[in-house]
Specification:
By secondary structure, this protein is of the alpha/beta class. Helices cover about 45% and strands about 10% of the residues. The strands form 4 sheets. The protein has an 8-stranded parallel β-sheet with strand order 7-6-5-14-13-12-10-8. Bound molecules: D-xylulose (XUL) and cobalt (II) ion. Cobalt (II) ion binds next to loops.
Length: about 425
């Protein structure tokens, strides 16, 4: 059997003292933390599009990375790509993967041909999944690359485009179900607008909801028991995307009665593009009962676009894992590295260094988040901060037992209130103490 990464050994945990760049220093898959292995806490996934497909193009330059897998015919290339993906997941000890329909198989001249290509590759994937014991975290349909989707897919002004998108989703969902996928994602790549001068926003959003309802109904009818996710992003490629952030998506879901059918797939770099922190978006999802899955990556604070870099910031991964643990941890979701090596990191081993650093970063985040919880100082501070609502007038406010007039009477009697410190700097130094102390 051809090896696609012959110079890469199986990556193993060697501990924090190891200087071997092809080893995990912090990710020890079988290590048990709070009753669960790191593997089960983190549920790492490989993004097929960045890892197996992306060639390092940008708007100023062509590909820098060879992703031909030793073949020229597109279908042969796709088969080799699938085979290579299992070698890569096996060597990195990653249990899951995620794909768009058009990542795994080339688009044909007709829809029938595209579907046939998908079936052919699904055969190869199914075989690889069995042989290597790998699982599909989620599937999705690419409804943004082809020119037919330039005005959107579900929110296109053209009914034929809507129908094509529905057909594509139907097939992507069938392949997801066939491969035992635990989730299906909607990322509204071109579901938004460039100018309101040509856009009926209310109609477009209602249509999007129609497409989502149809997808859920069809998915359940063919036995899909996984989670449906929406992945918010404020902009790029469109100037304004309808799934701007978690709060906007929650309002959309509630408007159209879809809130019981969808959870969030929160992406770090999308959060920052929406001028939020990753932690903020995770918290908003959790408090709405909609935490589902994560696209792990990071942006660059000096750049205003989706750089999809591998995560390396341990503060960020700690606070993210803190939110994830508080939300109950992953059930059907996981940590999908929607991340790619820079285009100048174009050697095969760079993909391995990238994943190792991302996986180690989240392994550290997981450990540190538990340290934060066990330490208790931050949680206790937050709980104490609201102590006035636990008794007296505060408890009555929460129980709905007082009126505006009662509160006026209380305030008049009580006089000026004590302005209580928020202690941000102290808490930030406690965080450092826990991380490095
Ligand atoms: C794009 C993005 C997508 C989704 C899946 O910014 O994140 O790759 O994760 O369509
Ligand atoms: Co993503």
């Amino acid at each position: 059997m051809t090896e696609f990464y012959p110079n890469i050994p199986k990556i193993r945990y060697e501990g924090s003292k190891s200087k071997n760049p092809l080893s995990f220093r912090f990710y020890n898959p079988e290590e048990v933390i709070a009753g669960k292995t790191m593997r089960d806490h983190l549920r790492f996934a490989m993004s097929y599009w960045h890892t197996m497909v992306a060639e390092g193009t940008d708007i100023f330059g062509s590909g820098t990375i060879d992703k031909k897998y030793g073949a020229t015919d597109p279908l042969e290339q796709a088969k080799n790509k699938a085979r290579a993906s299992f070698e890569l997941m096996d060597k990195l000890d990653i249990d899951f993967f995620c794909f768009h329909d058009r990542d795994i198989a080339p688009e044909g001249a007709t829809l029938e041909e595209s579907n046939k290509n998908l079936d052919a590759i699904a055969d190869v994937l199914e075989e690889g999944m069995k042989k290597y014991n790998k699982k599909l975290l989620w599937g999705t349909a690419n409804l943004f690359s082809n020119r037919r989707y330039m005005n959107g897919a579900g929110t296109s002004p053209n009914a034929d485009v809507f129908a094509y998108a529905a057909a594509q989703i139907k097939k992507a969902l069938e392949v997801t179900v066939r491969l035992g996928g635990e989730g299906y994602v909607f990322w509204g790549g071109r579901e938004g607008y460039e100018t309101l001068l040509n856009t009926d926003m209310a109609f477009e959003q209602a249509n999007m909801a129609r497409l989502m309802r149809m997808t859920v109904d069809y998915g359940r009818s063919i036995g899909f028991t996984g989670d449906f996710y929406i992945e918010p992003k404020p902009k790029e490629p469109m100037k304004h995307q309808y799934d701007f952030d978690v709060a906007t998506v929650m309002a959309f879901l509630k408007t159209y009665g879809l809130e019981k059918d969808f959870k969030m797939n929160v992406e770090a770099n999308h959060a920052t593009l929406a001028q939020h922190t990753f932690q903020h978006e995770l918290r908003v999802a959790a408090i709405n009962g909609a935490f589902g899955s994560v696209d792990a990556n990071r942006g660059d604070t000096l750049l205003g676009w989706d750089t999809d870099q591998f995560p390396t910031d341990v503060y960020d991964s700690t606070l993210a894992m803190y939110e994830i643990i508080k939300a109950g941890g992953f059930t059907k979701g996981g940590l999908n590295f929607d991340s790619k090596a820079r285009r100048a990191s174009n050697a095969p081993e760079d993909v391995f260094y990238s994943y190792i650093s991302g996986m180690d970063c989240f392994a550290l985040g997981l450990k540190m988040a538990y340290k934060l919880i066990e330490d208790g100082r931050i949680d206790n501070f937050v709980s104490d901060r609201y102590a006035t609502f636990k008794e007296g007038i505060g408890a009555k406010i929460v129980a709905g037992e007082v009126s505006m007039a009662d509160l006026e009477k209380y305030a008049l009697e009580k006089g000026e209130v004590k302005a209580q410190s928020g202690r941000q700097e102290l808490l930030e130094s406690i965080l450092n103490d826990i991380l490095f102390g």
